[in-house]
């Protein structure tokens, strides 16, 4: 029997209308952000540095400093529960258990003063009723699952005794020890060399295939996105500029920002380019244009762009926030 098509996959996490600002600021750093993550699928969130990708993830995990942030709206549906993003107690209950996060820098999650095995065991004990021996057995099992050689010895080592790639594996082991249904990975491989990057991404895909967890992968590497994304959300200056299946967003980009990003995808030949080849810079809070936030860099900006474009459907399940979407490609060619 053939497996069900992935479009029938069930929704794991849905986020709506997420809007917040840092105290003392006059503009929202993230505005009206929403998305859906389905079982076994990978949603990639892309955009240049400073576009609000990390703060969005931190808000969902309840990890932004509470006294520094003002959450103005935002609803989450997760595990059959519906709750506001600022229900910090509920968010804390899921964090590290049903919903886990890994970071670019493993030392954000690992404590240099404690042995690796103890740290993973403690994460297990926090979410399960089990004794120390069982938690330690689980820690060992997880180190083996992430292919750490000589796992039994590694249990008693400290983070500094491991290479960067091995520390990243330990962080993944710790995040996955409680079998989360959602894993948020914020640039998890950016600090690693290319070979290790590929190994870590393969490992995440392998664990996802085993458990069916949904992954939200934040990255600015469009090569990675093309390889593993099911869906893509393109963020620009705290807004979602474009959202849809990877096939639609890559095959038929409908927002001028997405098109700009794609033209800076690293090619197989020639020097490796980064996303900064879209001319200009992301505006900072306080200097955001009041309508379309991309208008200060957009080659197609027109008077109507002083009004904020809605994130409108341009095809089934494919949305773009541009007054001119669906785009007339002749415009693009003559620009
Ligand atoms: N604690 C904070 N206080 C004030 N501004 C912040 C704080 N953390 C992040 N920012 C600002 O929020 C914006 C989005 O940052 P971030 O989410 O880190 O971007 P990205 O992950 O897309 O590179 C940036 O302008 C950043 O300077
Ligand atoms: S709404 Fe206007 S400024 Fe914004 S992306 Fe579209 S054309 Fe460019
Ligand atoms: Mg970031």
CATH topology grouping of the largest domain: Rossmann fold
Distance between the termini: 50 Å
Low-confidence stretches: 1-6, 267-276
On the 0 to 100 scale, the average pLDDT is: 90
Count the strands?
12
Cα-based radius of gyration, to the nearest Å:
21 Å
Shape descriptor reads globular
Number of domains: 2
Q: How many separate helices?
A: 11
Measured by DSSP, the beta-strand proportion falls in 15-25%
In CATH, the architecture of the largest domain is: 3-Layer(aba) Sandwich
Strand order of the largest sheet: 6-7-8-3-9-10-12-11
Largest sheet: 8 strands, mixed
Helical residues, percent: 25-40%
SSE succession: EEEHEEHEHHHHEHEHEEHHEEH
CATH class of the largest domain: Alpha Beta
The unique ligands bound to this protein are:
adenosine-5'-diphosphate, iron/sulfur cluster, magnesium ion
Structural class: alpha/beta
Assembly type of the chains comes to: single chain
């Amino acid at each position: 029997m053939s497996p069900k098509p992935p479009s029938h996959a069930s929704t794991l996490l849905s986020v709506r209308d997420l809007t917040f600002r840092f105290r003392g600021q006059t503009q929202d750093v993230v505005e009206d952000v929403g998305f859906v993550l389905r079982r076994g699928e990978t949603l990639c969130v892309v955009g240049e540095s400073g576009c609000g990708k990390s703060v969005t993830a931190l808000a969902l995990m309840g990890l932004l400093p509470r006294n520094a942030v003002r959450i103005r709206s935002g609803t989450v549906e997760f595990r059959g529960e519906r709750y506001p993003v600022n229900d910090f107690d509920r968010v804390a209950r899921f964090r590290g258990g049903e919903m886990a996060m890994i970071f670019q820098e493993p030392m954000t999650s690992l404590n240099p003063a404690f042995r690796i095995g103890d740290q993973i065991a403690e994460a297990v004990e926090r979410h399960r009723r089990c004794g120390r021996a069982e938690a330690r057995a689980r820690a060992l099992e997880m180190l083996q699952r992430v292919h750490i050689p000589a796992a039994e010895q590694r249990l008693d080592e400290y983070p500094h005794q491991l290479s960067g790639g091995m520390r990243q594996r330990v962080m993944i082991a710790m995040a996955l020890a409680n079998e989360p249904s959602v894993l948020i990975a914020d640039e998890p491989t950016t600090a690693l060399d290319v070979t290790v990057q590929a190994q870590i991404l393969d490992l995440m895909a392998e664990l996802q295939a085993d458990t069916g967890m949904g992954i939200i992968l934040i990255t600015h590497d469009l090569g990675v996105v093309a390889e593993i994304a099911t869906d893509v959300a393109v963020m620009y200056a705290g807004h979602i500029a474009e959202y849809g299946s990877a096939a639609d967003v890559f095959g038929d980009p409908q927002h001028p920002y997405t098109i700009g990003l794609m033209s800076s995808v690293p090619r197989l030949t020639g020097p490796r380019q980064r996303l900064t080849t879209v001319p200009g810079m992301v505006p900072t809070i306080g200097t955001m244009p009041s309508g379309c936030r991309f208008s200060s860099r957009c080659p197609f900006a027109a008077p109507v762009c002083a009004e904020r474009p809605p994130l409108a459907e341009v095809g089934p399940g494919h949305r773009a926030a541009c007054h001119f979407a669906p785009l007339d490609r002749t415009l693009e060619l003559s620009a």
